[in-house]
Design the sequence.
């Protein structure tokens, strides 16, 4: 796994970047790294690759993006291998990926934490996932601390914070009229040369940063104590709250497709008469076909079990298996849900039910 | 609106207090601005939470399919949704006598949240204000006023079919109902305009929209008329569909779904509003509805009507056949 | 960096050739495939970790992959056996396959039967229908060479709907001749060609009445059989810790990544497929 070590205070590398210099910093980075940045589209802002030699780019204003950058390390569709038929013989061709060092620039703290979760999961057990890590090991994250959390944000309830640098290699703090650029990890020290010309951070700047951090934190209105969530859920598996929660769920998979930590996939085969390939594609546990067996038996046959699975996976099984929560509180599932099923309400119901029990 | 609310409250209250139904199905305020949540009104005190407005975006008829036959349920519906219920009754999926329909005349229609998001550049609004048909959206770094007609669901912009055709209770709503358009326009004007485009342009449009699809099935799952026990795309034996999210697969899914809904889709557009990617392919469905109208005058389905594509009449147009002189 | 990455890519199948195909039952929806590795290196790698009770992912190139329990024992060194029921698109295509065809295999996956813990114990094996596959692997292993003396009594109860449904008829005949195994074969109801036991597996288990003393029970069969056999074992005095079950779930990757085969916090593909009854009671089961 990618090891990151907080630098000691006396070695802290923090620079002040004037607002109007950010785009040239990005340009500088793009000379040496493949860059993934937030880009304005016709009617949205999305993470996308940048080629600053060929396109004009201006770093946009945004709170967080509708879609997380999960797909850059765990694509929606990924070829596992291809094969050719030669008469009766089969020739397997392993996927050869040439991955350049890449930087995801402007990622929010919640999304950076989601990669930590994916790192833990994909490296867990006997088998590590080669496709994920082939990209992950070449990826650096430069975060942008969150001054303006959104209405559905609840990172502070799941162990995160708008100004958290967890999982990042470097972070930008927006002080309104300028940025602080701080190197977080050893890998992140590779960025020092791009910002060395800028002035060092001053005490007053750090004070201002703390003020911003506090104001951001205060903007998150939802607050729940999930310290006992694993135990709470242990006792609620058969509770009727799952029927109540699932009653409003239409069993689409929108929540898992926007979730930065959902990582379940399906494996499919694409072929013609000369050969084919095996691919994996994102899948979601809210679909009844997810667990439908060839015999016709389905252990999670109704919305009740499927809704329950999603909550237990993130808030119970993850704690049992990896001692971490499987949710970063980005709130995307809340916003995308056609029936406005709000995971915060579900968690509240769980905690309340556990108190009563 | 106030009057609708008052009348609705009275009807729902009487149904609940006199135990005429097990519950009434309506909406309550969501947890985010301009969002609503389905509400099961089982007790009188639940009525206080009930809302009825331009962002009650789901077609609640979908949820009736989950309920066992013989259970008496009240449901608050607009006319398009009533027509979807009629289709289900005609197709023997739901018993008319199980359902108490509370019909509400529809004013301008339902807001498509995706349209709002797009018009404010994917940003988030934290509040909105209404001033007549002007909606002002406010976020942390912007404020934007948008005309209702620009954020209404596509089909609502042209819809004139606003008064309930089937109901047990009718909400009194002395509003003059018309489309949001100023002049009297053809209900299918958008289809007619689109038909004038070159095939390549039309294809480019659909291609661009379908490329966004993640196959999350929110459209299928929000549609009351998609009720197959095993959808063709989930079928494993035989497997028609490889789920790989290639354009060909997405096209296969959406085209087949459209064909399955031909002559049945009532253009409530719950699917468009449910789409997390804001995909807008309603013209595909509306074109098929227009064909039902042009060929069989069967775009407005009523109780007891034969299935449009499942029935045959001797005088059905047969323009696809070779004519005898 | 990730050190486990140095290992081979677990998603890539090895190539094997179908050496032989045998129909196992009268209705012909069960066939046993004998597979030979195309590359010795692949075979060695496979057998390094292979133990009875594990499964492998079988690939029909161009069709897909299916998880199948391994019916042969690691002691049968030259080949692998898989008994496959015709149920889905992959198994349908496999059933149409002839000798000489090349298919793919990934594995072995899962924990397998707890062999070490079973040493020195009396072994009770209860199986029903075609789910006997990994139990066969286990029995062959128990009887191989010097292995037999490491274990106590071996009691087997194997039931099928009718005589034509029994798998591994040659093995059964051979085992029946041995005096160091107590083999009980049963069918659901009377049949003219049958002179052995008649009755459902739970009933026969009760009649055979294996002692729980220093014993371990290994159960594999359809859910209904397991449901009614568990109380019988309990009645006979078996504790939950002494009963081991092999489970099935829909699987894709086989290596704990695709996310669908969990029972509570455990994945059947890597933490199972064999669980003790005691472990299962601790898990949150849908």
Sequence:
């Amino acid at each position: 796994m990618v090891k990151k070590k907080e630098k000691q205070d006396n070695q802290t590398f923090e620079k002040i970047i004037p607002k109007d210099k950010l785009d040239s910093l990005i340009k500088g980075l793009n000379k040496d790294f493949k860059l993934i940045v937030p880009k304005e589209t016709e009617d949205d802002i999305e993470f996308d690759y940048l080629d600053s030699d060929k396109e004009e780019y201006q770093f946009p204003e945004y709170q967080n993006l509708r879609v997380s950058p999960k797909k850059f390390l765990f694509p929606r569709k990924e070829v596992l291998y291809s094969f050719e038929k030669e008469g009766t013989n089969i020739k397997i061709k392993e996927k050869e990926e040439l991955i350049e060092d890449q930087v995801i620039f402007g990622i929010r703290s919640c999304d950076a934490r989601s990669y930590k979760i994916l790192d833990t999961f994909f490296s867990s057990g006997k088998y590590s996932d080669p496709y994920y890590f082939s990209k992950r090991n070449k990826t650096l994250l430069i975060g942008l601390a969150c001054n303006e959390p959104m209405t559905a944000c609840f990172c502070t309830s799941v162990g995160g914070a708008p100004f958290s640098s967890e999982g990042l290699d470097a972070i930008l703090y927006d002080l309104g009229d300028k940025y602080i650029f701080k190197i977080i990890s050893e890998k992140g020290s590779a960025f020092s040369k791009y910002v060395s010309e800028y002035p060092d951070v001053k005490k007053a700047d750090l004070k201002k940063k703390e003020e911003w951090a506090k104001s951001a934190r205060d903007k998150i209105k939802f607050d729940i104590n999930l310290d006992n969530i694993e135990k709470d859920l242990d006792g609620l598996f058969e509770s009727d709250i799952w029927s109540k929660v699932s009653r409003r769920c239409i069993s689409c998979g929108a929540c898992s497709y926007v979730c930065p930590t959902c990582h379940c996939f399906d494996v499919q085969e694409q072929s013609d008469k000369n050969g084919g390939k095996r691919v994996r594609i994102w899948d979601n546990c809210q679909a009844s076909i997810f667990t439908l067996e060839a015999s016709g038996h389905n252990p999670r046959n109704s919305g009740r079990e499927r809704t329950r699975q999603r909550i237990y996976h993130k808030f119970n099984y993850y704690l049992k298996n990896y001692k971490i929560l499987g949710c970063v509180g980005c709130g995307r599932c809340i916003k995308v849900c056609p029936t406005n099923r709000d995971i915060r309400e579900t968690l509240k119901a769980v905690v309340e039910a556990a108190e009563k029990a | 609106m106030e009057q609708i609310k008052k009348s609705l409250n009275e009807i729902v209250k009487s149904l609940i207090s006199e135990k005429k139904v097990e519950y009434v199905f309506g909406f309550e305020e969501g947890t985010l601005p301009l969002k609503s949540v389905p509400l099961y009104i089982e007790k009188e005190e639940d009525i206080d939470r009930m809302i009825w407005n331009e962002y009650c975006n789901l077609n609640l008829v979908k949820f009736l399919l989950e309920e066992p036959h013989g259970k008496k349920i009240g449901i608050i519906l607009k006319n398009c949704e009533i027509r979807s219920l009629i289709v289900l009754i005609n197709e023997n999926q739901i018993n008319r006598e199980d359902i108490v329909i509370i019909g509400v005349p529809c004013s301008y229609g339902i807001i498509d949240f995706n349209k709002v998001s797009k018009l404010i550049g994917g940003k988030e609004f934290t509040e909105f204000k209404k001033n007549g048909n002007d909606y002002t959206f406010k976020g942390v770094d912007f404020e934007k006023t948008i005309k209702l007609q620009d954020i209404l669901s596509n089909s609502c912009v042209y819809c004139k079919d606003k008064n309930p055709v089937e109901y047990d209770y009718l909400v009194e709503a002395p509003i003059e109902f018309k489309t949001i358009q100023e002049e009297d326009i053809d209900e299918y004007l958008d289809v007619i305009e689109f038909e004038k485009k070159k095939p390549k342009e039309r294809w480019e449009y659909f291609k661009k929209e379908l490329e966004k699809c993640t196959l999350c099935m929110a459209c299928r799952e929000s549609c009351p008329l998609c009720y197959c026990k095993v959808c063709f795309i989930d079928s494993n034996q035989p497997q028609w569909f490889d789920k790989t999210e290639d354009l060909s697969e997405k096209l296969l899914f959406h085209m087949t779904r459209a064909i399955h809904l031909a002559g049945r889709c009532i253009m409530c557009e719950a699917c468009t509003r449910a789409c997390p990617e804001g995909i807008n392919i309603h013209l595909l469905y509306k074109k098929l509805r227009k064909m039902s109208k042009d060929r069989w005058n069967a775009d407005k389905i009523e109780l007891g009507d034969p299935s449009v594509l499942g029935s045959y009449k001797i005088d059905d147009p047969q323009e696809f056949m070779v004519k005898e002189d | 960096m990730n050190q486990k990455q140095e290992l081979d890519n677990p998603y890539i199948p090895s190539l094997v050739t179908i050496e032989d195909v045998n129909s196992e039952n009268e209705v012909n929806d069960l066939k046993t495939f004998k597979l030979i590795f195309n590359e010795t290196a692949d075979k060695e790698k496979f057998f390094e970790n292979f133990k009875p009770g594990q499964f492998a992912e079988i690939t029909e190139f161009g069709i897909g992959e299916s998880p199948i329990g391994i019916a042969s024992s690691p002691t049968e060194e030259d080949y692998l056996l898989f008994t496959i029921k015709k149920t889905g698109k992959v198994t349908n295509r496999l059933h149409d396959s002839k000798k000489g065809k090349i298919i793919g295999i990934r594995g072995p996956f899962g924990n397998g039967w707890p062999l070490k813990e079973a040493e020195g114990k009396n072994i009770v094996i209860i199986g029903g229908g075609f789910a006997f596959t990994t139990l066969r692997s286990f029995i062959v292993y128990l009887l191989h060479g010097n292995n037999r003396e490491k274990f106590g009594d071996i009691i087997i109860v194997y039931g099928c709907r009718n005589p034509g449904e029994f798998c591994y008829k040659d093995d059964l005949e051979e085992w029946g001749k041995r005096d160091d195994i107590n083999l009980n074969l049963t069918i659901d109801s009377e049949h003219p060609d049958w002179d052995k036991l008649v009755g459902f597996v739970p009933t026969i288990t009760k009649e055979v009445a294996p002692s729980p003393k220093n014993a371990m029970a290994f159960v594999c069969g359809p859910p209904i059989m397991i449901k009614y056999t568990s109380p019988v074992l309990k009645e006979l005095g078996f504790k939950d810790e002494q009963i081991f079950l092999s489970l099935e779930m829909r699987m894709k990757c086989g290596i704990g990544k695709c996310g669908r085969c969990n029972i509570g916090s455990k994945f059947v593909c890597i933490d199972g497929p064999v669980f003790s009854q005691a472990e299962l009671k601790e898990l949150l089961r849908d």
User: Anything to note?
Assistant: Residues 1-10 of chain A have pLDDT under 50 and may be disordered.
